[in-house]
Amino acid sequence: MSKAKRLIEMMITINAKKDFTVSELAKEFSVSNRTILRDLQELEQAGFPLYSEVGAAGGYHILKERILPPIAFSENEAKAIFFACQALQFYRDLPFEQETISVLKKFLNCLPLDIQNNITQLQNKVVFWVPDRHCDSPLLRAIFEIAVNRHAATIRYSSIRSESIRTIIPIGLYAMNGLWYCPAYCTSADQIREFRVDRIKEIIEEKPYPKVNCPFPASIQEYLKNIESGNDCHIKIHLTDTGVKRCKTECLLARGLKTFPTGGGMIDMEIRRAALEWVADYFLPLGNNATILEPTELKALMKHKIGELYQHYFSQSD
Asked: The pTM is what?
């Protein structure tokens, strides 16, 4: 086995073991202890995070911040990885923001010059744009860690109407239209609620994962699938051509959208009853380009919102 191949395989082996002795590696790779010591010295000089302990219980250990072994990529695979990172560039906050920047620098610097130029040209032609919401989420990384560690957290949350103290058990995180959302079981509401991460103003306490009586999705993917297949409320909304164009851009509503050959269309679908408030807010700016037919609860909600808007403006003195 060549030295280069041995070093790569040694990196893979060390990553798997985490704790090892020189003799163990020497036996595994069929070389002398002295050769293994030289190899480990080269890996350390290259930045591989190792530390050693002397004594009967000593040996080598790998630090928590591990470095992965080299991986060979094709030209198209390199482009795919670059654009996967670029897709996140318009998000104001990311759980691994600094790491995303450093990995792109490392990645580009390792590519041949012609591929670097090719990627630059592609970058000028393709962009994964999301709207800039001007909302900072300084606690995104902390909420991410709480969700990954399956912990609960007591937070200070600022909603549209008020500020409150909540204890939540995050299901996970998802990003949509430039904002980060954290679906979580809320102990005070005794149900799963969605929390905008930029509205979490403080993490007061992190706690071990408690038991809950509410059905709890096993993953964020399961939660999002349940949102799409929610079926405890039926909505029926008639749309003009303008209304159809607007609803085609909204993934939740587009599922139930049907267009008519003569123009206009209809949204006829099942949704979660908890989403009715959002539906009312979405259709309010559409004015007479949308006519809600069902349910009565949604029509009443629209009338209430329109009444509040009317009172807001007509109560003002000129």
From this structure: 0.61
